[in-house]
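Our collaborator T.R. sent over the components below with a one-line note: 'Predict the complex.' Nothing else. No constraints on interfaces, no templates requested, no preferences about which chain binds where. So this is a plain run: every listed entity goes in together, and whatever single assembly comes back becomes the starting point for the next discussion.
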Amino acid sequence: MSTGHVLLGLLTRGPLHGYELKRAYDHRLPQAKPLGFGQVYATLGRLERDGFVAPDDPDQAGGPERTAFGITAQGETELSTWLGTIEPPSPHVTSALLTKVTVALLAAGEQRARDYLVAQRAAHSTRLREYTKMKSDPDARLADVIAADYAIAHLDADLRWLRTTLDRVAELRQEISE
Amino acid sequence: MSTSPMLYGRGVVRSYGRTPALRGVTLDVAEGEIVAVTGPSGCGKSTLLLCLAGILRPDAGEIGYREQRIDTWSESARARLRRSEFGVLFQFGQLVAELPAAENVALPLLLAGARRREARTAALSWLDRFGIADLADNRPGDMSGGEQQRAALARALVTEPRVLFADEPTGALDSLAGERVLGHLVRVAREQRTTVVLVTHDARVAGYADREVMLRDGMLDPSGLGLMSGAV
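Returned assembly:
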């Protein structure tokens, strides 16, 4: 998961101060890795340097904690690219997957979230087939087979999760827009 | 133009009474390909298998095998095709309870007119291939679920079919026993270039296939995520 992209996603709803951004993060992504204030400001600094965010009111004086930041057109492009990029299918990515779905719903709408889930499912299925092939090889060592079993079981769980999440997308959008 | 598919369904529609099971499914299967047909229970995947295998006749649409339309054939002509070209494996092997494993496996050859000794030799060789030669004289009731399913797989393959239709072949087995059955199935299919249509609800089973097609509510779901019924 990229903190910068998540913050960009949160800013698509309108400019926020660092403090508000941190609160929005905690509210939207309660299961995600906790984010400190320092990290929010440091990330905002990087995003500003890269041209992805800009002060909402450039004339306002004060440090970053007094400044509300908004996403720029360049930031929106960057966010869109990230939303279109699938996560490498591997065990324990559910948290990253959930984060991306939530940000997609916030920033780009339901269809984008669905498109992402579809692409992610295809990538997971392909990876699952690769592991299956690996362990079906007559020359595979038992240790490799057991490791492949582990990966397959987790990918299978992710695939079920992807399907259920898709069924919940409409509800999740509802909750997010409240 | 690429080579024509070995097996195909075009716009296949099939209902049971007033309940639609398939609502226009089109699927091409290439020779030697292993295709998994997946989807939630009741999505029509078993009906599609039965239609493709010429066991059920669709209400509308076409089924074709080797560039011949077969759904219009008579029941007896389709039965002949099934005996000579197709093998079928179900969730429960449906072995004949009174017959020992070797005789069960030999049955399709005997029905096709083979001599008893030849049929038994072939049956023993298939049982040996699947690691259960020592159970040749056991009746199904004296075998584990996995052993029975391996015997059923041997029976489905003993005529060396061009296409194997397998409907939840490991659905009743624990994961390791299921894996053995699938391992044998896929190995033989690769060695003999047998085309396989594998129906399953389990992504781990579908992982053995070259390609997965998903059904939802009797239709193909190109997204694999049930988008067609995903009301917004």
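Summary for T.R.: Chain A has two domains: 3-84, 96-177.
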